[in-house]
Design a protein that fits this description.
Pfam family, one (chains A, B): ROK
Distance between the termini of chain A: 32 Å
Organism (chains A, B): Streptomyces oceani
Largest interface: A-B, 42 and 41 residues
Oligomer: homodimer
Strand order of the largest sheet of chain A: 5-4-3-6-9
Structural class of chain A: alpha/beta
Number of strands of chain A: 14
InterPro entries (chains A, B): ATPase_NBD, ROK, WH-like_DNA-bd_sf
Protein name (chains A, B): Regulatory protein
Shape of chain A: globular
Order of helices and strands of chain A: HHHEEEEEHEEEHEHEEEHHHHEHEH
CATH topology of the largest domain in chain A: Nucleotidyltransferase, domain 5
Family (chains A, B): Belongs to the ROK (NagC/XylR) family.
CATH architecture of the largest domain in chain A: 2-Layer Sandwich
Strand content of chain A: 15-25%
DNA sequence: TGTCTTTGTGTCGTTGGCAAACAAATCTGT
DNA sequence: ACAGATTTGTTTGCCAACGACACAAAGACA
C-alpha cells in the first residue's frame, strides 16, 4: 500500500503568490511579519516560506539574529535568493537601448547599454536588444524566466502595438510585442514557465516606471499613485491603483500630454494649443531659457545638465524652471481632480523641477485643485535609477508572482 | 458516537457571494449558467443555489421548462426572490428627496417622493427621509437589510462628509453619513446583518448612478465605464473600473466639473474660466437659448422640457444644444485620453443631448481624442429611471453580496 | 422505444488551511 | 545562574470546501 503522505511542502499553495509578492516588495522581512501580512497561521506561513525556498526564489536564514529591543525568539529573515532566477528586461529610447537581467526585488543583476542605428526598424533594434540580453545571460549563467520591454510609446492592448513611437522613427502601429516575442523565440530564450514559449511582455515606459516606483521606489505604499514624467520629448503619465496599473480598456489611459496648460501657448501636433506635451517637456524648457539645443546629447540630458549647473547662477534658467513648474502644476491639478491620487511621483525633467522648487509646484497644484486634501498630497521625485527597466522586469515577473508553481524546475 | 455529517448546505460557502452577484446582475438566469460562470462543478453550484434559496434571497423554480431549440434536460431557472429582503435607498436633490425600498436585481419595490424645506439642515432632511422610508417599510412589511443614500455632493472618504453640497444649502463638510446613520439608529431601522447597527452608506449621486448603470443599465458589461451627467446645477462624473467605483484615495475622483472647455468662457467659482460646470449644465443651456429660467421647477426639468418640446421647431434651441454638445465633447475627449473607457453613459441633461444629436457628440469626442479607437467607443444615454436611487441601494446591498452569510435569519 | 444530450445529485477522496499543544530561542528580573 | 515571560517555529489532528466520478433525471430526436 502506497502511503502518499501530505507533505508539508504541498500546503499553502494558495498563499504562495501573495507571499512571494510580499517578499518581492520588501514587505515581509521575516517569517513572523509574513504570517501577519498574509493573515494565516504560523504553520501555513512556515510551509509557504519553505516552498518558496524550495523553488529557489527566496532564502530563509538558518541562524536568526534578534533585533534590538525585542523579546522572544528571533524570527527567521526572509530574502530574495541572490542565486535565484532572473528576467531579461530592456528599455528602448530615442538614443539607444539598455538591456539588463533583473532579479526579484527589482535588483538589477547585470546591465549593458546599446546604441541604436538611426532609423532602424523595430525588428532590427529588438534583435540587437535580445542579443545583448542573451550575452548577459551567457556571461552570468543565470536562469531566465521571462522577458519584458519598455518602449517610449503608448502600447495598444491587447494587440501590443506601438501607437505613437514618434521618437524612434518606427511606424505607428508597429506590432512591438509580437516582434519582441519573435526575437526571443528565434534566439531560444526559454520562458522558464510551464505552458508555452517565452512571451515578450511589452508596455509603455512611463507606465512601467510607475509600476517600478510603486513596488520598489518612491511610490511604495500609495493606494493611488500618479506618475508623470518626460522622456526626451513629450510628457507621459501613469496611474497605479491598488497595486495595479490603470491601463484603461485598450492600454491608452493616462495619455496626459494633451492636457491644456496654456490656451494661448504653442501649437501642438494634436491640433490644439498649449498642450503639456509641448509646454512642459525638455525642448520647451530649453526654449524658455533661450538656449539653442545642441545635437550632441539628448534634449533631456541637456535640460538636466542646465538645471544642475546653472540653476543657482542664471536667473533665466530659474525663470524657465518656474514657468514649467507652473504649467506642470496646472496639468497635475487637473489630474488630481480627476484621479484623486494620494501620492504623485515625478520622473525625467519633472523630477529635476520638483527637486529645485518643490514648494512652488505643490502650491500650483493646491491652488487649482478642489476640496481635496491636496495640501497633504505628497509630490515626490522618483527614487529608482532605471525605473522603466525595473518596471519591464516587473511585467515579466508577474506570472511568477501570480503563481510561483508555474516555474519549471531549474 | 455523534455522527456530525457534512450536510449539503454547508458546501459552497466561498462561492456564495459571487453567485449572488451573478443572479443580482442578471448574468445567471439558470443553474447551468451559474455553474459555468462560477467555474465550479454542478454539485457545488447546486449547493450554492440551494443555500441562497434557503437564505430567502433567490428562488429556484421547481418545474423547469425547456428553452426552445435546446436538447437535454432543462435547467432550473434562478430568480431574485420577490418576497426577499429589501434595502432602504434614498436620494436627496435640490428640490426634495425620494425614498424607496429596493430589492436585489435593482428592482424598486416601493417609492415615495418628498419635499424639502428650503434651507433645512441635514439632520432635519435626513430625518424626514428615513421617516419616509420607515413608512414604506411598515406598509410593505418587508424585511430591511441595509440603507443607502445618494447626495449631490462629493463625499470625502473615509469620513463620509459632504464637501460641496452647494445646491442643498448645507454646510460644506457636513458629516452626512454620520447623520444618516444616526437617523437610522434613532428610528430603529435594523441592519439585518450580523455585526453592529445599521450603517447609512452614503455617496455621491453620480457615482451611484454609474454603479447602477453598470450593474443593471446601459453600462452592463463595460470594463471601464465613464458616466458623466448633470443634476440641476454643475456636472459630475464617475468611473466604474472592472466593476468597482473608482472613488480615488479620498472619494474625490472624477470631479470633472472643472475641466476647461472654453478658455474665454464664463468665470467659474473655482477661479478659472469656461469650466464644464458652468458651460455645460442646465443653466448654461437655458442661457444659450436666451430663455430666462423660471423659479417654478428645477433648471434641469426646464432644460429637458425645452429640448423635448422645442428642439424640432426652434433653431435657437438646436443651436444651444449644439454648443453644449461641442463643449461636452471637448470635456469627454479629455477624459477619454486620461481614462480610456470602453463605454460612456450620459445622464441628466447630457442624456437628452446625446438623444437629440449623438452623432455630433461622438464626432466631437473622436476629433479631440488621440490614437484610440474612439470611433468605436459607444456613447449611450443612461437607461435606468432612478439610477442614483438604485445605486444607493447597491451600496447597501454590497455587504450582502460580499458575504450572504452575514444576513441574520429573518 | 431507444439513443443522445444536458442537467441535477450522491459519494468519496483530496486539498488547503486552522487550532492547539508543544518545542525552541531569546529577554528580563532577581 | 536560573526562572518566568515572550515570541517564534513545528507537529499533529482535524475539517470545510471543494473536485472527480458515477449515476439518475428530463427532455429532444430518429
Amino acid at each position: 500500500m502506497t502511503l502518499t503522505r501530505t507533505t508539508k511542502l504541498e500546503r499553502g499553495r494558495g498563499a504562495l503568490g501573495p507571499a512571494l509578492e510580499l517578499v518581492h516588495t520588501g514587505r515581509a522581512p521575516t517569517r513572523a511579519v509574513l504570517t501577519a501580512e498574509l493573515g494565516v497561521t504560523r504553520a501555513t506561513a512556515g510551509a509557504v516560506a519553505a516552498e518558496l525556498a524550495a523553488l529557489g526564489l527566496i532564502t530563509v536564514d538558518a541562524h536568526p539574529v534578534a533585533a534590538e529591543g525585542t523579546q522572544g525568539r528571533p524570527s527567521h529573515r526572509l530574502a530574495i535568493d541572490p542565486a535565484g532566477p532572473v528576467v531579461l528586461a530592456a528599455q528602448v529610447h530615442a538614443d539607444g537601448f539598455r538591456a539588463a537581467l533583473v532579479g526579484l526585488g527589482g535588483r538589477i543583476v547585470a546591465t549593458a547599454p546599446g546604441c541604436m542605428t538611426v532609423g532602424a526598424d523595430p525588428a532590427h533594434v529588438l534583435g540587437e536588444v535580445v542579443d545583448s540580453g542573451a550575452a548577459l545571460l551567457r556571461e552570468t549563467r543565470r536562469r531566465c524566466v521571462g522577458a519584458g520591454l519598455a518602449v517610449p510609446s503608448a502600447v495598444a492592448e491587447p494587440e501590443g502595438t506601438a501607437l505613437n513611437p514618434l521618437h524612434l522613427a518606427w511606424d505607428a502601429g508597429a506590432p512591438v510585442r509580437e516582434i519582441f516575442s519573435g526575437c526571443l523565440a528565434e534566439r531560444d530564450i526559454p520562458s522558464g514557465l510551464s505552458g508555452g514559449p517565452a512571451t515578450g511582455w511589452t508596455a509603455n515606459d512611463v507606465n512601467l516606471a510607475a509600476l517600478a516606483e510603486h513596488r520598489h521606489g518612491a511610490g511604495r505604499g500609495a493606494q493611488h499613485l500618479l506618475v508623470v514624467g518626460t522622456g526626451h520629448r513629450g510628457v507621459g503619465g501613469a496611474l497605479v491603483s491598488h497595486g495595479k496599473l490603470h491601463t484603461g480598456s485598450s492600454g491608452l489611459a493616462l495619455e496626459v500630454g494633451h492636457l491644456t496648460v496654456d490656451p494661448t501657448g504653442r501649437p501642438c501636433h494634436c491640433g490644439g494649443r498649449g498642450c503639456l506635451d509641448v509646454e512642459a517637456d525638455p525642448l520647451a524648457f530649453l526654449e524658455e531659457t533661450g538656449r539653442r539645443p545642441g545635437p550632441e546629447v539628448s534634449l533631456l540630458e541637456q535640460a538636466l545638465e542646465l538645471i544642475r549647473a546653472e540653476y543657482d547662477t542664471d536667473a533665466r534658467v530659474r525663470a524657465a524652471a518656474g514657468t514649467l513648474i507652473d504649467r506642470l502644476g496646472l496639468g497635475l491639478a487637473g489630474l488630481v481632480n480627476i484621479l484623486n491620487p494620494d501620492r504623485i511621483v515625478l520622473a525625467g525633467l519633472h523630477r529635476a523641477l520638483v527637486d529645485v522648487d518643490g514648494a512652488r509646484l505643490r502650491g500650483a497644484i493646491t491652488e487649482r485643485s478642489l476640496w481635496g486634501r491636496s495640501g497633504e498630497l505628497p509630490v515626490l521625485p522618483c527614487s529608482l535609477r532605471h525605473n522603466s527597466l525595473v518596471g519591464a522586469a516587473e511585467l515579466a515577473w508577474q506570472p511568477v508572482l501570480d503563481d510561483p508553481l508555474r516555474l519549471l524546475p531549474a
